[in-house]
């Protein structure tokens, strides 16, 4: 877990108990979920295998070990998990070096959270080397800290990443709003006891208790997030 700037105090609006906002990265702030799938398809094509498009829903949003392990087992490809992980990271880094599109509303939301000094963390299943590359485009000044998938004992769908982010910010997970795009990330945030806003990227996700589904980050602002958590 790496802190990028000191955690800031919250000018909490009357009637709100929001203490922090915890944000997923791929598919939530940056439009990169498709990048991972494209890289996976290219690597396995080079190994003589074609990935079934239905597998995309299985591997999206999960830790690399789980996704890569599933693809190796499903295809029977002659490659180790360690070898595939290196190729996946290299391929993804090459993609984001050429282009890193932000999701609609992402830049505006980050700017608003910074303006009102809302403690904010980036929480991703991606490895630290990937997060640090993406942070240069998102703006590290927007985040009090970031948590990478290779820095916690268990990554998403386990609650560890979100619990680590809340602990690092010194806040109560139950008073945190999490923004996620996949079922794996939602499961992690809910297991940590957070309120969740879902902007589905690949597969639909249904609303539930303490879970609000929207179609775009353009629907999400500080007033919206504060309204999720009552005093």
Automatic annotation (TrEMBL):
InterPro entries: HAD-like_sf (IPR036412), HAD-SF_hydro_IA (IPR006439), HAD_sf (IPR023214), PGP-like_dom2 (IPR023198). It comes from the Bacteria. Pfam families: Hydrolase. This is HAD family phosphatase.
